[in-house]
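so my prof wants the structure for this chain in the tokens format not the other one, which i didnt know existed until like an hour ago. anyway here's the sequence
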Amino acid sequence: MIHGTDCQGFVGASSLDRMGVEALLTNLTKEFKHLKLPKATLKPNPRGR
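here's what i got, hopefully its the right format
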């Protein structure tokens, strides 16, 4: 196999296992960052603090 390709390097099994998950997490993080939350309204503190 080494002599039949010009590839260099090694991709371990754990790297291959994460590939599908990494793309999903990246997209999920991007979506989360674009969420718009309603403005918080401050309520008076009954203890006066």
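also thought this was worth mentioning. The CA atoms of residues 9 and 27 lie 28 Å apart.
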